[in-house]
Protein backbone atom coordinates (compact mmCIF):
# COMPACT_ATOMS: atom_id res chain seq x y z
CA UNK A 1 0.00 0.00 0.00
CA UNK A 2 1.45 3.33 -0.94
CA UNK A 3 1.85 6.24 1.41
CA UNK A 4 -1.09 8.12 -0.05
CA UNK A 5 -3.37 5.12 0.17
CA UNK A 6 -2.55 4.59 3.82
CA UNK A 7 -3.07 8.29 4.38
CA UNK A 8 -6.50 8.10 2.79
CA UNK A 9 -7.51 4.89 4.54
CA UNK A 10 -6.14 5.72 7.99
CA UNK A 11 -5.78 9.43 8.38
CA UNK A 12 -9.19 10.68 7.27
CA UNK A 13 -11.21 8.14 9.25
CA UNK A 14 -9.02 8.89 12.27
CA UNK A 15 -9.61 12.61 11.93
CA UNK A 16 -13.33 12.06 11.40
CA UNK A 17 -13.78 9.86 14.46
CA UNK A 18 -11.53 12.20 16.42
CA UNK A 19 -13.79 15.07 15.51
CA UNK A 20 -16.86 13.14 16.65
CA UNK A 21 -15.33 12.38 20.06
CA UNK A 22 -13.97 15.90 20.08
CA UNK A 23 -17.51 17.28 19.85
CA UNK A 24 -18.31 15.37 23.03
CA UNK A 25 -15.18 16.65 24.77
CA UNK A 26 -16.33 20.09 23.71
CA UNK A 27 -19.74 19.53 25.34
CA UNK A 28 -18.00 18.64 28.58
CA UNK A 29 -15.53 21.49 28.25
CA UNK A 30 -18.29 24.03 27.54
CA UNK A 31 -19.89 23.17 30.86
CA UNK A 32 -16.60 23.62 32.70
CA UNK A 33 -15.95 26.90 30.94
CA UNK A 34 -19.44 28.26 31.63
CA UNK A 35 -18.99 27.64 35.32
CA UNK A 36 -15.48 29.02 35.32
CA UNK A 37 -16.31 32.11 33.32
CA UNK A 38 -18.85 33.48 35.75
CA UNK A 39 -18.02 31.96 39.12
CA UNK A 40 -14.24 31.42 38.66
CA UNK A 41 -14.55 27.89 40.00
CA UNK A 42 -13.18 24.82 38.27
CA UNK A 43 -15.81 22.19 38.77
CA UNK A 44 -13.94 18.96 39.45
CA UNK A 45 -17.20 17.20 40.27
CA UNK A 46 -18.42 17.62 36.67
CA UNK A 47 -17.37 14.17 35.46
CA UNK A 48 -18.49 12.22 38.49
CA UNK A 49 -21.90 13.92 38.64
CA UNK A 50 -22.42 13.30 34.91
CA UNK A 51 -21.39 9.68 35.48
CA UNK A 52 -23.92 9.37 38.28
CA UNK A 53 -26.71 10.67 36.04
CA UNK A 54 -25.69 8.31 33.23
CA UNK A 55 -25.99 5.46 35.72
CA UNK A 56 -29.36 6.85 36.75
CA UNK A 57 -30.54 6.57 33.14
CA UNK A 58 -29.28 3.01 33.08
CA UNK A 59 -30.89 2.14 36.40
CA UNK A 60 -34.24 3.66 35.50
CA UNK A 61 -34.48 2.20 32.01
CA UNK A 62 -33.03 -1.27 32.58
CA UNK A 63 -35.33 -2.32 35.39
CA UNK A 64 -32.63 -2.12 38.03
CA UNK A 65 -34.44 0.66 39.90
CA UNK A 66 -37.48 1.07 37.65
CA UNK A 67 -38.33 0.17 34.10
CA UNK A 68 -39.23 3.45 32.48
CA UNK A 69 -38.87 4.19 28.81
CA UNK A 70 -35.52 5.63 27.70
CA UNK A 71 -36.94 9.13 27.20
CA UNK A 72 -38.57 9.22 30.63
CA UNK A 73 -35.39 7.96 32.25
CA UNK A 74 -33.37 10.70 30.56
CA UNK A 75 -35.88 13.29 31.72
CA UNK A 76 -35.60 12.10 35.32
CA UNK A 77 -31.81 12.06 35.04
CA UNK A 78 -31.78 15.61 33.68
CA UNK A 79 -33.96 16.75 36.57
CA UNK A 80 -31.63 14.98 38.98
CA UNK A 81 -28.60 16.66 37.36
CA UNK A 82 -30.26 20.06 37.70
CA UNK A 83 -31.11 19.35 41.33
CA UNK A 84 -27.56 18.20 42.09
CA UNK A 85 -26.04 21.25 40.41
CA UNK A 86 -28.43 23.48 42.37
CA UNK A 87 -27.47 21.76 45.61
CA UNK A 88 -23.72 21.91 44.96
CA UNK A 89 -23.77 25.56 44.09
CA UNK A 90 -26.02 26.40 47.05
CA UNK A 91 -23.55 24.78 49.44
CA UNK A 92 -20.41 26.33 48.01
CA UNK A 93 -21.81 29.74 47.08
CA UNK A 94 -20.57 31.41 50.28
CA UNK A 95 -17.07 30.15 49.40
CA UNK A 96 -17.28 31.26 45.78
CA UNK A 97 -17.24 34.92 46.74
CA UNK A 98 -14.29 34.45 49.03
CA UNK A 99 -11.68 32.20 47.44
CA UNK A 100 -11.91 30.50 44.08
CA UNK A 101 -9.22 27.99 45.01
CA UNK A 102 -11.04 26.88 48.16
CA UNK A 103 -14.30 26.48 46.31
CA UNK A 104 -12.48 24.53 43.59
CA UNK A 105 -11.18 22.11 46.20
CA UNK A 106 -14.71 21.88 47.60
CA UNK A 107 -15.97 20.67 44.22
CA UNK A 108 -13.43 17.83 44.48
CA UNK A 109 -15.29 16.82 47.65
CA UNK A 110 -18.58 16.70 45.75
CA UNK A 111 -16.87 14.65 43.06
CA UNK A 112 -15.78 12.11 45.65
CA UNK A 113 -19.27 11.98 47.14
CA UNK A 114 -20.87 11.52 43.70
CA UNK A 115 -18.44 8.69 42.96
CA UNK A 116 -19.16 7.03 46.28
CA UNK A 117 -22.91 7.32 45.79
CA UNK A 118 -22.57 5.75 42.33
CA UNK A 119 -20.59 2.87 43.81
CA UNK A 120 -23.06 2.39 46.65
CA UNK A 121 -26.15 2.46 44.45
CA UNK A 122 -25.00 0.75 41.28
CA UNK A 123 -21.95 -1.21 42.35
CA UNK A 124 -18.62 -1.45 40.58
CA UNK A 125 -19.97 -3.47 37.63
CA UNK A 126 -19.49 -2.50 34.03
CA UNK A 127 -22.76 -2.14 32.15
CA UNK A 128 -23.77 -1.29 28.59
CA UNK A 129 -25.98 1.70 27.92
CA UNK A 130 -26.90 2.27 24.30
CA UNK A 131 -28.75 5.07 22.57
CA UNK A 132 -32.12 4.33 20.93
CA UNK A 133 -30.96 5.36 17.46
CA UNK A 134 -31.31 3.60 14.12
CA UNK A 135 -28.28 1.57 13.17
CA UNK A 136 -27.04 2.29 9.72
CA UNK A 137 -23.79 3.14 8.07
CA UNK A 138 -22.73 4.43 4.69
CA UNK A 139 -19.47 5.41 3.20
CA UNK A 140 -18.49 8.71 1.64
CA UNK A 141 -15.08 9.05 -0.05
CA UNK A 142 -13.77 6.09 1.92
CA UNK A 143 -15.13 7.40 5.21
CA UNK A 144 -17.48 5.08 7.07
CA UNK A 145 -20.17 7.23 8.62
CA UNK A 146 -22.49 5.59 11.13
CA UNK A 147 -25.82 6.59 12.59
CA UNK A 148 -24.04 7.15 15.88
CA UNK A 149 -21.65 9.66 14.29
CA UNK A 150 -24.52 11.63 12.78
CA UNK A 151 -26.49 11.57 16.04
CA UNK A 152 -23.53 12.90 17.99
CA UNK A 153 -22.89 15.57 15.41
CA UNK A 154 -26.53 16.62 15.29
CA UNK A 155 -26.98 16.72 19.05
CA UNK A 156 -23.70 18.59 19.51
CA UNK A 157 -24.56 21.15 16.85
CA UNK A 158 -28.08 21.71 18.21
CA UNK A 159 -26.96 21.92 21.85
CA UNK A 160 -23.99 24.14 21.22
CA UNK A 161 -25.97 26.28 18.77
CA UNK A 162 -28.75 26.74 21.33
CA UNK A 163 -26.21 27.62 23.99
CA UNK A 164 -24.55 30.27 21.84
CA UNK A 165 -27.93 31.74 20.85
CA UNK A 166 -28.93 31.96 24.51
CA UNK A 167 -25.64 33.59 25.46
CA UNK A 168 -25.60 35.99 22.52
CA UNK A 169 -29.20 37.09 22.29
CA UNK A 170 -31.20 36.50 25.46
CA UNK A 171 -31.28 38.73 28.51
CA UNK A 172 -29.92 35.92 30.63
CA UNK A 173 -27.04 35.46 28.21
CA UNK A 174 -26.21 39.15 28.30
CA UNK A 175 -26.25 39.05 32.11
CA UNK A 176 -23.96 36.02 31.96
CA UNK A 177 -21.50 37.84 29.71
CA UNK A 178 -21.64 40.98 31.84
CA UNK A 179 -20.85 39.03 34.99
CA UNK A 180 -18.03 37.14 33.31
CA UNK A 181 -16.55 40.41 32.13
CA UNK A 182 -16.82 42.40 35.33
CA UNK A 183 -18.77 40.98 38.25
CA UNK A 184 -18.50 44.10 40.36
CA UNK A 185 -19.84 46.44 37.69
CA UNK A 186 -22.58 43.94 36.87
CA UNK A 187 -23.65 43.82 40.49
CA UNK A 188 -23.63 47.62 40.72
CA UNK A 189 -25.96 47.65 37.71
CA UNK A 190 -28.41 45.54 39.66
CA UNK A 191 -27.70 42.05 38.38
CA UNK A 192 -28.03 39.20 40.82
CA UNK A 193 -24.74 37.30 40.65
CA UNK A 194 -26.11 34.22 42.31
CA UNK A 195 -29.01 33.66 39.96
CA UNK A 196 -26.69 33.93 36.95
CA UNK A 197 -24.27 31.53 38.63
CA UNK A 198 -27.16 29.11 39.12
CA UNK A 199 -27.93 29.42 35.42
CA UNK A 200 -24.34 28.55 34.52
CA UNK A 201 -24.10 25.61 36.91
CA UNK A 202 -27.41 24.13 35.80
CA UNK A 203 -26.62 24.56 32.09
CA UNK A 204 -23.26 22.92 32.65
CA UNK A 205 -24.90 19.98 34.39
CA UNK A 206 -27.28 19.49 31.46
CA UNK A 207 -24.38 19.64 28.98
CA UNK A 208 -22.58 17.08 31.13
CA UNK A 209 -25.52 14.67 31.00
CA UNK A 210 -25.81 15.04 27.23
CA UNK A 211 -22.09 14.44 26.78
CA UNK A 212 -22.09 11.44 29.11
CA UNK A 213 -25.06 9.77 27.41
CA UNK A 214 -23.44 10.21 24.01
CA UNK A 215 -19.98 8.96 24.98
CA UNK A 216 -21.15 5.87 26.85
CA UNK A 217 -22.16 3.79 23.77
CA UNK A 218 -18.56 3.92 22.48
CA UNK A 219 -17.13 2.54 25.71
CA UNK A 220 -19.07 0.91 28.51
CA UNK A 221 -20.52 2.47 31.58
CA UNK A 222 -18.52 2.00 34.76
CA UNK A 223 -17.84 4.22 37.75
CA UNK A 224 -14.80 5.73 36.10
CA UNK A 225 -15.64 5.96 32.38
CA UNK A 226 -17.44 9.28 32.46
CA UNK A 227 -14.95 10.79 34.90
CA UNK A 228 -12.12 9.74 32.57
CA UNK A 229 -13.97 11.22 29.62
CA UNK A 230 -14.34 14.50 31.49
CA UNK A 231 -10.59 14.61 32.05
CA UNK A 232 -10.17 14.98 28.30
CA UNK A 233 -12.77 17.73 28.56
CA UNK A 234 -10.54 19.41 31.15
CA UNK A 235 -7.65 19.26 28.72
CA UNK A 236 -9.88 20.69 26.01
CA UNK A 237 -10.96 23.54 28.27
CA UNK A 238 -7.39 24.33 29.27
CA UNK A 239 -6.17 24.34 25.68
CA UNK A 240 -9.11 26.55 24.72
CA UNK A 241 -8.23 28.99 27.46
CA UNK A 242 -10.73 28.00 30.17
CA UNK A 243 -12.46 31.33 29.86
CA UNK A 244 -13.53 31.14 26.24
CA UNK A 245 -16.58 29.22 25.00
CA UNK A 246 -15.48 29.03 21.34
CA UNK A 247 -12.03 28.08 22.67
CA UNK A 248 -13.56 25.11 24.46
CA UNK A 249 -15.15 24.01 21.20
CA UNK A 250 -11.90 24.26 19.26
CA UNK A 251 -9.97 22.69 22.14
CA UNK A 252 -12.37 19.76 22.29
CA UNK A 253 -12.09 18.94 18.61
CA UNK A 254 -8.32 19.43 18.73
CA UNK A 255 -7.91 17.09 21.69
CA UNK A 256 -10.17 14.51 20.06
CA UNK A 257 -8.24 14.47 16.80
CA UNK A 258 -4.77 14.63 18.39
CA UNK A 259 -5.53 11.82 20.84
CA UNK A 260 -6.88 9.65 18.05
CA UNK A 261 -3.83 10.22 15.85
CA UNK A 262 -1.45 9.62 18.75
CA UNK A 263 -3.06 6.35 19.84
CA UNK A 264 -3.06 5.05 16.28
CA UNK A 265 0.35 6.16 15.05
CA UNK A 266 2.46 6.20 18.20
CA UNK A 267 1.18 4.22 21.15
CA UNK A 268 -2.08 3.74 23.00
CA UNK A 269 -0.23 3.10 26.23
CA UNK A 270 1.08 6.61 26.70
CA UNK A 271 -2.10 8.55 25.94
CA UNK A 272 -2.30 10.30 29.34
CA UNK A 273 1.36 11.26 29.13
CA UNK A 274 0.71 12.63 25.66
CA UNK A 275 -2.25 14.62 26.98
CA UNK A 276 0.01 16.12 29.64
CA UNK A 277 2.56 17.06 27.00
CA UNK A 278 -0.14 18.63 24.82
CA UNK A 279 -1.41 20.72 27.76
CA UNK A 280 2.09 21.88 28.70
CA UNK A 281 3.06 22.75 25.15
CA UNK A 282 -0.24 24.49 24.40
CA UNK A 283 -0.06 26.54 27.58
CA UNK A 284 3.49 27.59 26.87
CA UNK A 285 2.76 28.78 23.37
CA UNK A 286 -0.68 30.18 24.20
CA UNK A 287 -0.64 30.98 27.93
CA UNK A 288 -4.28 32.08 27.82
CA UNK A 289 -5.61 29.51 25.39
CA UNK A 290 -5.53 29.33 21.64
CA UNK A 291 -8.31 31.85 21.03
CA UNK A 292 -7.45 34.35 23.72
CA UNK A 293 -6.47 37.86 22.73
CA UNK A 294 -2.98 38.88 23.75
CA UNK A 295 -3.04 41.00 26.86
CA UNK A 296 -0.59 42.28 29.39
CA UNK A 297 -0.31 43.91 32.75
CA UNK A 298 1.80 46.66 34.16
CA UNK A 299 3.42 46.72 37.54
CA UNK B 1 -7.99 30.13 54.51
CA UNK B 2 -4.30 29.85 53.86
CA UNK B 3 -3.90 33.60 53.66
CA UNK B 4 -5.23 34.10 57.13
CA UNK B 5 -2.77 31.62 58.51
CA UNK B 6 0.34 33.07 56.96
CA UNK B 7 -0.35 36.67 57.80
CA UNK B 8 0.18 38.20 61.16
CA UNK B 9 -3.13 38.41 62.94
CA UNK B 10 -3.67 42.03 63.99
CA UNK B 11 -4.20 42.68 67.65
CA UNK B 12 -1.98 39.81 68.67
CA UNK B 13 1.23 40.94 70.33
CA UNK B 14 4.67 39.67 69.42
CA UNK B 15 5.03 38.21 72.91
CA UNK B 16 1.89 36.14 72.65
CA UNK B 17 2.94 34.91 69.21
CA UNK B 18 6.35 33.90 70.51
CA UNK B 19 4.83 32.11 73.48
CA UNK B 20 2.43 30.44 71.05
CA UNK B 21 5.40 29.20 69.06
CA UNK B 22 7.06 27.93 72.24
CA UNK B 23 3.97 25.99 73.34
CA UNK B 24 3.53 24.51 69.87
CA UNK B 25 7.20 23.47 70.05
CA UNK B 26 6.50 21.85 73.40
CA UNK B 27 3.44 20.01 72.05
CA UNK B 28 5.51 18.73 69.13
CA UNK B 29 8.23 17.50 71.49
CA UNK B 30 5.68 15.70 73.65
CA UNK B 31 4.02 14.13 70.59
CA UNK B 32 7.38 12.94 69.26
CA UNK B 33 8.34 11.52 72.66
CA UNK B 34 5.06 9.62 72.89
CA UNK B 35 5.50 8.31 69.34
CA UNK B 36 9.02 7.09 70.12
CA UNK B 37 7.64 4.81 72.83
CA UNK B 38 4.57 3.73 70.90
CA UNK B 39 5.98 0.43 69.51
CA UNK B 40 6.43 -0.78 73.12
CA UNK B 41 2.68 -0.54 73.68
CA UNK B 42 1.28 -1.46 70.28
CA UNK B 43 1.22 -4.67 68.32
CA UNK B 44 3.06 -5.23 65.08
CA UNK B 45 0.20 -4.33 62.76
CA UNK B 46 -0.47 -1.00 64.47
CA UNK B 47 3.22 -0.15 64.42
CA UNK B 48 3.18 -0.83 60.71
CA UNK B 49 0.09 1.36 60.20
CA UNK B 50 1.58 4.20 62.23
CA UNK B 51 4.71 4.02 60.07
CA UNK B 52 2.52 4.49 57.00
CA UNK B 53 0.81 7.40 58.80
CA UNK B 54 4.16 9.13 59.20
CA UNK B 55 5.04 8.53 55.56
CA UNK B 56 1.72 9.90 54.35
CA UNK B 57 2.09 12.87 56.69
CA UNK B 58 5.22 13.85 54.77
CA UNK B 59 3.18 13.77 51.55
CA UNK B 60 0.47 15.89 53.13
CA UNK B 61 3.19 18.32 54.22
CA UNK B 62 4.50 18.54 50.65
CA UNK B 63 1.03 19.52 49.38
CA UNK B 64 0.41 21.96 52.24
CA UNK B 65 3.80 23.57 51.69
CA UNK B 66 2.91 24.29 48.09
CA UNK B 67 -0.37 25.86 49.20
CA UNK B 68 1.18 27.95 51.95
CA UNK B 69 4.34 29.13 50.22
CA UNK B 70 3.29 28.99 46.61
CA UNK B 71 -0.44 29.65 46.87
CA UNK B 72 -1.00 26.78 44.47
CA UNK B 73 -2.96 23.57 44.69
CA UNK B 74 -1.49 20.35 43.39
CA UNK B 75 -3.50 17.26 42.62
CA UNK B 76 -0.52 15.54 41.07
CA UNK B 77 1.82 14.87 43.95
CA UNK B 78 1.68 11.12 43.38
CA UNK B 79 4.15 11.81 40.59
CA UNK B 80 6.75 12.81 43.16
CA UNK B 81 5.85 10.12 45.67
CA UNK B 82 6.11 7.55 42.88
CA UNK B 83 9.55 8.90 41.95
CA UNK B 84 10.76 8.53 45.52
CA UNK B 85 9.15 5.15 46.07
CA UNK B 86 10.56 3.70 42.88
CA UNK B 87 14.06 5.01 43.50
CA UNK B 88 14.01 3.14 46.81
CA UNK B 89 12.30 0.08 45.29
CA UNK B 90 14.50 -0.20 42.22
CA UNK B 91 17.80 0.40 44.01
CA UNK B 92 16.79 -2.13 46.65
CA UNK B 93 15.53 -4.98 44.51
CA UNK B 94 17.88 -4.62 41.54
CA UNK B 95 21.10 -3.56 43.22
CA UNK B 96 20.60 -4.31 46.92
CA UNK B 97 21.37 -0.72 47.89
CA UNK B 98 19.73 0.46 51.11
CA UNK B 99 18.14 3.76 52.09
CA UNK B 100 21.52 5.37 52.77
CA UNK B 101 21.91 5.91 49.05
CA UNK B 102 18.36 5.73 47.80
CA UNK B 103 16.86 8.50 49.95
CA UNK B 104 19.36 11.12 48.75
CA UNK B 105 18.71 9.91 45.22
CA UNK B 106 14.95 10.18 45.78
CA UNK B 107 15.35 13.71 47.13
CA UNK B 108 17.53 14.68 44.17
CA UNK B 109 15.11 13.20 41.63
CA UNK B 110 12.15 14.84 43.37
CA UNK B 111 13.77 18.26 43.30
CA UNK B 112 14.99 17.89 39.72
CA UNK B 113 11.62 16.71 38.41
CA UNK B 114 9.84 19.34 40.47
CA UNK B 115 11.96 21.95 38.70
CA UNK B 116 11.49 20.25 35.33
CA UNK B 117 7.73 20.26 35.77
CA UNK B 118 7.69 23.79 37.12
CA UNK B 119 9.66 25.26 34.24
CA UNK B 120 7.13 24.69 31.45
CA UNK B 121 4.32 25.59 33.85
CA UNK B 122 6.11 28.59 35.35
CA UNK B 123 3.59 31.07 34.00
CA UNK B 124 0.57 29.03 35.00
CA UNK B 125 -1.20 29.62 38.23
CA UNK B 126 -4.40 28.79 40.03
CA UNK B 127 -6.66 26.57 38.00
CA UNK B 128 -4.28 26.15 35.07
CA UNK B 129 -1.63 24.68 37.32
CA UNK B 130 -4.19 22.55 39.16
CA UNK B 131 -5.43 21.03 35.90
CA UNK B 132 -1.86 20.49 34.69
CA UNK B 133 -0.98 18.65 37.89
CA UNK B 134 -4.13 16.63 37.35
CA UNK B 135 -2.80 15.56 33.96
CA UNK B 136 0.50 14.76 35.66
CA UNK B 137 -1.25 12.52 38.19
CA UNK B 138 -3.05 10.69 35.38
CA UNK B 139 0.17 10.06 33.51
CA UNK B 140 1.85 8.40 36.52
CA UNK B 141 0.28 4.90 36.58
CA UNK B 142 0.69 4.60 32.84
CA UNK B 143 4.38 5.49 33.01
CA UNK B 144 4.94 2.98 35.83
CA UNK B 145 3.24 0.18 33.93
CA UNK B 146 5.07 0.88 30.71
CA UNK B 147 8.53 1.02 32.25
CA UNK B 148 7.94 -2.41 33.74
CA UNK B 149 11.51 -3.55 33.02
CA UNK B 150 12.56 -1.24 35.81
CA UNK B 151 9.44 -0.91 37.94
CA UNK B 152 8.09 -4.43 37.85
CA UNK B 153 4.81 -3.26 36.29
CA UNK B 154 1.61 -4.30 38.03
CA UNK B 155 3.36 -6.72 40.33
CA UNK B 156 5.50 -4.05 41.93
CA UNK B 157 8.63 -4.40 44.01
CA UNK B 158 9.32 -5.61 47.53
CA UNK B 159 11.68 -3.59 49.71
CA UNK B 160 13.57 -5.81 52.16
CA UNK B 161 17.08 -4.42 52.64
CA UNK B 162 17.39 -3.09 56.19
CA UNK B 163 18.50 0.45 56.89
CA UNK B 164 20.67 -0.58 59.85
CA UNK B 165 21.46 -4.31 59.65
CA UNK B 166 20.77 -6.31 62.78
CA UNK B 167 17.70 -4.48 64.04
CA UNK B 168 14.27 -6.01 63.63
CA UNK B 169 12.68 -4.91 60.33
CA UNK B 170 9.29 -4.03 61.84
CA UNK B 171 10.89 -1.53 64.21
CA UNK B 172 13.08 -0.12 61.46
CA UNK B 173 10.09 0.50 59.23
CA UNK B 174 8.52 2.48 62.09
CA UNK B 175 11.49 4.48 63.32
CA UNK B 176 12.81 5.40 59.89
CA UNK B 177 9.41 6.87 59.01
CA UNK B 178 9.24 8.79 62.29
CA UNK B 179 12.78 10.05 61.83
CA UNK B 180 12.06 11.23 58.28
CA UNK B 181 8.90 13.01 59.39
CA UNK B 182 10.70 14.84 62.21
CA UNK B 183 13.59 15.83 59.94
CA UNK B 184 11.29 17.14 57.21
CA UNK B 185 9.17 19.08 59.71
CA UNK B 186 12.30 20.64 61.21
CA UNK B 187 13.54 21.58 57.76
CA UNK B 188 10.21 23.21 56.91
CA UNK B 189 10.25 25.12 60.21
CA UNK B 190 13.76 26.36 59.29
CA UNK B 191 12.52 27.37 55.85
CA UNK B 192 10.02 29.74 57.48
CA UNK B 193 12.87 31.67 59.08
CA UNK B 194 15.23 31.53 56.12
CA UNK B 195 15.79 34.16 53.45
CA UNK B 196 14.33 31.88 50.81
CA UNK B 197 11.19 31.26 52.87
CA UNK B 198 10.63 34.97 53.40
CA UNK B 199 11.15 35.65 49.71
CA UNK B 200 8.64 32.94 48.77
CA UNK B 201 6.02 34.30 51.16
CA UNK B 202 6.57 37.81 49.83
CA UNK B 203 6.27 36.62 46.24
CA UNK B 204 3.00 34.92 47.14
CA UNK B 205 1.46 37.75 49.14
CA UNK B 206 2.71 40.73 47.12
CA UNK B 207 4.06 39.67 43.73
CA UNK B 208 4.72 43.24 42.62
CA UNK B 209 6.65 44.07 45.79
CA UNK B 210 8.64 40.87 45.42
CA UNK B 211 9.53 41.87 41.87
CA UNK B 212 10.71 45.23 43.14
CA UNK B 213 12.91 43.56 45.77
CA UNK B 214 14.46 41.32 43.14
CA UNK B 215 12.61 38.06 43.79
CA UNK B 216 11.51 36.90 40.40
CA UNK B 217 8.05 35.39 40.36
CA UNK B 218 9.27 32.64 38.07
CA UNK B 219 12.06 31.83 40.48
CA UNK B 220 9.64 31.69 43.41
CA UNK B 221 7.34 29.33 41.52
CA UNK B 222 10.08 27.06 40.21
CA UNK B 223 11.88 26.83 43.54
CA UNK B 224 8.78 26.07 45.62
CA UNK B 225 7.85 23.31 43.18
CA UNK B 226 11.38 21.94 43.55
CA UNK B 227 11.16 21.96 47.35
CA UNK B 228 7.68 20.49 47.40
CA UNK B 229 8.65 17.85 44.83
CA UNK B 230 11.68 16.89 46.92
CA UNK B 231 9.54 16.46 50.04
CA UNK B 232 7.01 14.50 47.98
CA UNK B 233 9.80 12.16 46.86
CA UNK B 234 10.92 11.67 50.48
CA UNK B 235 7.32 10.77 51.29
CA UNK B 236 7.44 8.16 48.52
CA UNK B 237 10.78 6.80 49.68
CA UNK B 238 9.47 6.48 53.23
CA UNK B 239 6.25 4.89 51.99
CA UNK B 240 8.28 2.33 50.05
CA UNK B 241 10.44 1.43 53.04
CA UNK B 242 7.73 1.48 55.71
CA UNK B 243 5.08 -0.11 53.53
CA UNK B 244 7.60 -2.66 52.20
CA UNK B 245 5.95 -2.84 48.76
CA UNK B 246 5.88 -0.46 45.84
CA UNK B 247 3.19 -0.97 43.23
CA UNK B 248 1.24 1.21 40.79
CA UNK B 249 -1.86 0.89 42.99
CA UNK B 250 -0.28 3.26 45.48
CA UNK B 251 0.12 6.08 42.98
CA UNK B 252 -3.25 6.40 41.32
CA UNK B 253 -5.04 9.62 40.59
CA UNK B 254 -7.22 9.05 43.67
CA UNK B 255 -4.17 8.79 45.86
CA UNK B 256 -3.15 12.23 44.65
CA UNK B 257 -6.55 13.62 45.59
CA UNK B 258 -6.36 11.91 48.98
CA UNK B 259 -3.10 13.74 49.70
CA UNK B 260 -4.90 16.98 49.00
CA UNK B 261 -7.78 15.88 51.22
CA UNK B 262 -5.27 15.20 53.99
CA UNK B 263 -3.81 18.65 53.48
CA UNK B 264 -7.23 20.29 53.72
CA UNK B 265 -8.20 18.21 56.75
CA UNK B 266 -5.07 19.46 58.53
CA UNK B 267 -5.99 23.03 57.51
CA UNK B 268 -2.80 23.26 55.39
CA UNK B 269 -0.82 23.11 58.63
CA UNK B 270 2.96 22.72 58.44
CA UNK B 271 3.65 21.72 62.05
CA UNK B 272 4.29 18.10 62.94
CA UNK B 273 1.05 17.64 64.87
CA UNK B 274 -1.05 19.15 62.08
CA UNK B 275 0.45 17.07 59.29
CA UNK B 276 0.12 13.98 61.48
CA UNK B 277 -3.62 14.58 61.62
CA UNK B 278 -3.73 14.80 57.82
CA UNK B 279 -1.51 11.75 57.39
CA UNK B 280 -3.51 9.74 59.90
CA UNK B 281 -6.73 10.65 58.12
CA UNK B 282 -5.35 9.55 54.76
CA UNK B 283 -4.00 6.27 56.16
CA UNK B 284 -6.57 5.22 58.73
CA UNK B 285 -9.85 5.95 56.94
CA UNK B 286 -9.25 3.37 54.16
CA UNK B 287 -8.02 0.87 56.77
CA UNK B 288 -11.05 1.26 59.02
CA UNK B 289 -13.47 1.22 56.11
CA UNK B 290 -11.75 -1.52 54.14
CA UNK B 291 -14.82 -3.73 54.55
CA UNK B 292 -17.09 -1.21 52.84
CA UNK B 293 -14.96 0.35 50.12
CA UNK B 294 -17.70 2.44 48.55
CA UNK B 295 -18.04 4.53 51.68
CA UNK B 296 -14.44 5.72 51.46
CA UNK B 297 -14.97 8.33 48.72
CA UNK B 298 -18.19 9.49 50.39
CA UNK B 299 -16.46 9.93 53.72
CA UNK B 300 -13.45 11.64 52.15
CA UNK B 301 -15.72 13.99 50.27
CA UNK B 302 -17.74 14.81 53.36
CA UNK B 303 -14.58 15.37 55.40
CA UNK B 304 -13.18 17.65 52.71
CA UNK B 305 -16.38 19.70 52.53
CA UNK B 306 -16.84 19.68 56.29
CA UNK B 307 -13.36 21.04 56.92
CA UNK B 308 -13.67 23.68 54.21
CA UNK B 309 -17.05 24.86 55.49
CA UNK B 310 -15.73 24.78 59.04
CA UNK B 311 -12.78 26.91 57.98
CA UNK B 312 -15.22 29.30 56.38
CA UNK B 313 -17.81 29.58 59.14
CA UNK B 314 -15.69 29.17 62.29
CA UNK B 315 -14.15 32.68 62.27
CA UNK B 316 -17.61 34.16 61.68
CA UNK B 317 -19.22 32.21 64.50
CA UNK B 318 -16.36 33.11 66.82
CA UNK B 319 -16.71 36.77 65.92
CA UNK B 320 -20.45 36.68 66.52
CA UNK B 321 -19.92 35.01 69.87
CA UNK B 322 -17.29 37.58 70.87
CA UNK B 323 -19.69 40.36 69.96
CA UNK B 324 -22.37 38.76 72.10
CA UNK B 325 -19.94 38.44 74.99
CA UNK B 326 -19.00 42.11 74.67
CA UNK B 327 -22.65 43.14 74.59
CA UNK B 328 -23.23 41.29 77.84
From TrEMBL, chain A:
Classification via Pfam families: BPD_transp_2 (PF02653)
Any one GO CC term of the record: plasma membrane
InterPro entries recorded: ABC_transp_permease, BCAA_transport_permease
Chief location: membrane
Topology within the bilayer: Multi-pass membrane protein
TM annotation in the entry: 12-36, 48-66, 72-92, 104-124, 136-167, 198-216, 273-291
Similarity comment: Belongs to the binding-protein-dependent transport system permease family. LivHM subfamily.
UniProt name for this protein: Branched-chain amino acid transport system permease protein
Organism: Salipiger abyssi
Amino acid sequence: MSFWDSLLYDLFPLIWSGMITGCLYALGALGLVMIFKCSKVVNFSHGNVAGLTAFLVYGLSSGMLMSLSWGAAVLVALLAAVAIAFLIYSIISPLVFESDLTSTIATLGFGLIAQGVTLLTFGADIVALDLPIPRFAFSVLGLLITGYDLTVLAVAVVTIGALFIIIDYTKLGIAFRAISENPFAAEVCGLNLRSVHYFAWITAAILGVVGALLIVPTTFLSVTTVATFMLQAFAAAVIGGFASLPGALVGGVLVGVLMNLFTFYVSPEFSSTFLLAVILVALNIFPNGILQKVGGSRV
Amino acid sequence: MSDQATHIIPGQSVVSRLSGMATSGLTTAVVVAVLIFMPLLLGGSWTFTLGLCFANSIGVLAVSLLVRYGGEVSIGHTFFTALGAYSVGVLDTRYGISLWASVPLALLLGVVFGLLFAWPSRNLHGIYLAVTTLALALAVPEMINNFDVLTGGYEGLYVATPFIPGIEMGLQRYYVALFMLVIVCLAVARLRLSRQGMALLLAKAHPAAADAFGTRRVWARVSIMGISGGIGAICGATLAFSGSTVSPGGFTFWQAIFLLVGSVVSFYGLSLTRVLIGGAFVTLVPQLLSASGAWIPVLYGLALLGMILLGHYMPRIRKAMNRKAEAN
